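In response to reviewer comment 3 from the previous cycle, which asked for concrete evidence that the modeling workflow produces usable outputs, we include below a single protein chain processed end to end. The sequence was submitted unchanged, and the resulting structure tokens are shown without manual editing.
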Amino acid sequence: MGSDQFAGQSLLLVTGRLAEPALRRMVPQWQQQFDVQLSLQVMPITVAALMSPQWLAKHLQIPENCDAIILPGYCDGDLKPLQELTDLPIHVGPRDVRQLAEFFGGKLDPPSLEEYSIDIIAEINHAPRLELQDLIFQAESLQNDGANIIDIGCEPGTIWQEVGTVVRELVDRGLQISIDSLNPKEISPAVENGASLVLSVNSSNRQAALDWGCEVVAIPDNPGDWLQVSDTVDFLAARNVPFRIDPILEPIGFGFAASLARYMEARQTWPDAEMMMGIGNLTELSDVDSSGINFLLLAICEELSIGSVLTTQVINWARSSVRECDIARRMVHLAVQQNIPPKNMISDLVCLRDPKIRKLNDADLQALADSIRDNNYRILAETRHVSDSGARSIHLLGGGQHWCHEDAFELFQQLMDSEPRNLDASHAFYLGYEMCKATIANQLGKNYEQDEALRWGHLTVEEISHRRLQRQKRKKT
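The workflow returned the following structure tokens.
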């Protein structure tokens, strides 16, 4: 499709309720950009993907002076029921409303993820146990990953005598610091040396908060005790102490759903108050990769206008939580601001699998094998060849040959049985390395590209092609 095809026409865009806000926002721009008149008809269904031509024929009302109808991309069945209603051209558009610009002949601009509304507070646990240089390294690394505030986690039952010195060192390095303690004897020297936020304040230490001169986080004395956090909020508000409210997120199995409800209740009770959610109770205490959990919790915070999250990176599966939160907060901000699903924005949090798998059919694979006459080997991991066991196969092409097996060792044995003349130890090691990557790609549902790194979202480490380097060295000599 192109802009010339629709120029000067009056087009009817059919959609569902979910995509309506985004379409209404973009229609004026598209009308001007592509010289078209666009009218929008919203069907009585939330998700446009659930429409069928048969269902749509019962609800569609075609306006006068309409030149063509554009259906949602998922409405791709037999269009005969609709064609019986009208002689107008019926086009099936893209599946993502943001791709309509390309459909009209324009260019799809990548979404801007520069803005966010949630600050990340990254905690360094057991800070008193760390050497100063180690603590500085962790703090600066967390800041580089996206943390706005570095939280210094103290240890209950003890008083850290060096807390003031450490906080001053970090503040002098340009870091914004919070102190995580209930003990005024630790909190006071920390704020005197530049800490700008205190985690946390309840009935046990709120009187001392009057002397600190900084923002604090109001928490209940006991999780779930709503009356106590309300008393602390009223106490602080009456004395003009700036605060954020954290009703405390409970781990799964300890009242997780109920604690989520408390955040909603807090937002309804104090519609304009600053709030914080400590999300580490979920990421650290669940045997689940942290990226999806972080994304979902950041989405909840965005919709409830919770302006900060407290996270940590102690357990290994959550070791990149700060970076994940930085990506997630930008995605959910854009989604909420523009009333669009957080899909096709950025694939940095799609780590285990790839967003879309490229496929070659059997004929394409064989044609490729027949076209390769030199003795250099090409490796492919394709979903088309599936064995009786259900495993996906690895393909090895070269010299007009095509070997295929789901087991890399069996595949390599096929190659050895052909008595290749160009396979030395170095080349064999290279093929084994690449076949290992292809095996991983098949197991996880990822794309494999020879001499390229597998994609792991924001965790991807770009790969140096040692084979290319060797070729370059040979050319130079």
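The chain has three domains: 3-103, 119-338, 362-476. We consider this sufficient to address the reviewer's concern, and the full set will be provided in the supplementary archive.
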